[in-house]
Amino acid sequence: MTAPLPQGATIGILGGGQLGRMLAMAAARLGYRTVVLDPAEDSPAAQVANGFIHAAYDDTPALKKLLQQCDVITYEFENVPVATALSLSEEMSVFPPPEALEAAQDRLAEKIFLNTAGISTAPFLSVDNDDDLARGLERFSGGVLKTRRMGYDGKGQRVFRSADAGAHEGVFSEMGGVPLILEALVPFRREISVIAARAADGSTAIYDPAENEHRDGILHRSTVPAHVDAGTLAAAKQAAIDILGSLHYVGVLGVEFFVLDNGKVLVNEIAPRVHNSGHWTEAACTVCQFEQHIRAVAGLPLGDTGRHSDCVMENLIGDEVLRAPELLREPHLMLHLYGKTEIRPGRKMGHFTRLTRS
Ligand code: AMP
């Protein structure tokens, strides 16, 4: 086991969004410095980090500079190129391991990895032309067609409620002519997620599962505890532990699940990073997901995941952020704004967590 990072050491963060911002704030609280690398000029994380490298993820001189300034590297964005993570990992520890990025970036590779690890998912098949799609729609009596790469918040998806004749025609090119995956439409009762962490010594820490509601494909609300029975909670937590072990993971991982009528869980997707559905931990737990991730990558012991309150977290999307003054007046409510000055529809501007019972 390697020694923990000493005080004043620097953690490099690939990606400068709000997740990076909250990681940088947690790192500062533990006495670490951070340097953020992001292609966007005004990134929320750069506002609070000690250093900022404004560059593309594959900019070799910029990556060299990052290596010179840092002692360990992590990321807040799962579409960092795997080649970048691999080349950095030749020089310095990169956590979570680049293999986790690889598994999460391609929905087909992700499902194959999960099924090989003994974890259930929706039935799926790969789609590389309209004929593949026709066969899949027939087999699953409809389905959800997704781009294999770069999809998030429901982007790059199309739902087919049945296998109507001709429904497949021209769809492959309409979806951009890129590799696709068709998943069976899961008649889920609820969606839950688990935020889990693993340290380099193999110890794990898991938060209580949250129940998630989406609007327009974007997470709207996470409620804890989730309205599912103890068997379902245990199955979801066990699946998360199995995934962490299979990936020799170090850091925080988000796992999203569908809960079926019979209480069984299917993994929808994994995110090798801190996760929006774990923001509630900031207000309702002693050690939040951001600190937990920093602890893991810095080689510190993982923290207590105990929850002192029930809670509901809601995202503030677009002009919902204008509710901030009114939310600030509420007791038992923690507001977090991301420092984004331009309001755009669909843009995550902040979130709040309302403590509902302690
Ligand atoms: P994703 O980008 O894969 O997380 O999908 C966004 C949302 O679409 C999920 O949170 C679900 O609400 C819905 N969804 C995705 N895949 C399926 C599926 N196979 N069956 C039913 N609903 C799905």
TrEMBL record:
PROSITE patterns: ATP_GRASP. ATP binds at residues 107, 146, 151-157, 183-186, 191, 214, 268-269. Transmembrane segments: none annotated. Pfam families: ATP-grasp, PurK_C, RS_preATP-grasp-like. One of its GO terms (biological process) is 'de novo' IMP biosynthetic process. Gene3D superfamilies: 3.40.50.20, ATP-grasp fold, A domain (3.30.1490.20), ATP-grasp fold, B domain (3.30.470.20). Catalyzes the ATP-dependent conversion of 5-aminoimidazole ribonucleotide (AIR) and HCO(3)- to N5-carboxyaminoimidazole ribonucleotide (N5-CAIR). Catalyzes the ATP-dependent conversion of 5-aminoimidazole ribonucleotide (AIR) and HCO(3)(-) to N5-carboxyaminoimidazole ribonucleotide (N5-CAIR). This is N5-carboxyaminoimidazole ribonucleotide synthase.
